[in-house]
Structure formats: structure tokens, C-alpha cells
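Would you be willing to look carefully at the protein I have copied below?

:::
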Amino acid sequence: MLDAGFFHRWMTAAASAVDREADRLTELDSAIGDADHGTNMRRGFTAVTAVLDREAPATPGAVLMLAGRQLVSTVGGASGPLYGTLLRRTGKALGDEPEVTPQQLAEALGVGVAAVAQLGGAQAGDKTMLDALLPAADALGTSFEEARKAAEEGALATVPLQARKGRASYLGERSIGHQDPGATSSALLIAALAETAGADGGGA
């Protein structure tokens, strides 16, 4: 079972991963975006860890909903609303339970990912964060590690795609050959989840 502490550790691990990879995310974004994705995500997740340490929500759903609200208020561009929606809708789907199962998290993440797709009007193959999140949500029902692999493979698979949504879509064919920064940061989020589960002995 996964309690609020697990979700807090997940967000802390995600913040560490984003901080470590921020320069790479910005480098990816400089090719097909506004060259600020790493900076924005680092600022957002730093704020998330601060507010979680300060307020210590008591349920998994409350952790994710607070984290999502914080990302909306601190991350610039489209990423704030999209990541905020992902975490808030996932948290809302988890409800008020003090502990949830991995399967419940998988189902809730699916709800969150669907909300992102609706908000952004994107689908698989559009070269967005959904290319990492959709396969990860599907694979999470199998294991945390399978979700991590699916997200990373999904992010890599954006390289040959032409962007059809977001800032990168303005480049047309010039967006081909570059890995999508949003899919890359989404893969970091899922990898942090698998890392947290592995550290807790729940990697299956």
C-alpha cells in the first residue's frame, strides 16, 4: 500500500531528477521551444518540495493535489497548467483514502493523463508529454519499472516525429530530429516514481 509519505518521497525524487536534468531539458527546449523548460520545471518542483515539507498533506490524493496547484502557480508557459492538471486530476481520482494500491494509482494516473490530453487537445504521436505519459499509465498496471521503461521509450520515440501541438508545431518539419522536452520531463517524473517504489521495496 502507498501512503502520503510515499507520494511525498515521489515528489521529492522528481524534484531531484528535474534539478539534475534541468540543463538538458532547457537544451532540448532550445531546439524546438522557448529554451526555458528546464528552468521552469526546476522552479516549479523546488516550490513543490517546499510546500509539501511545510504543509505535510495526510493522504496520497492531497499530496498530489497540493503539488499540482503549486506547479500551476510557479511554472511558466504551458507546462504549469499541463503538469498541474496531471497531478491534480490524479490526486482527485485517488480520493481521500489514507493508503492506495499500485493498481489504484495506475487507474488514477490514467484519469490524470486523459485530462492532460483534453486540456492540450493532443494525442499519441503529436510529439508532446503524452507520448511518454500514455504508455507509462498503461504499463503502470504491470509494474513501476515497466512504466518507467515505457515512459523513457516514449520520450525517445518523439525524436523522428513532427510536432503537431504546442510551440514546437510552429516549426513544422524542422521539429523532426529533436526529442520533445515535455515528454522527457514526463519520463523523469515516472522514473522518480519507479525509483521511490524500488527504494521502498515495492518495485514490482
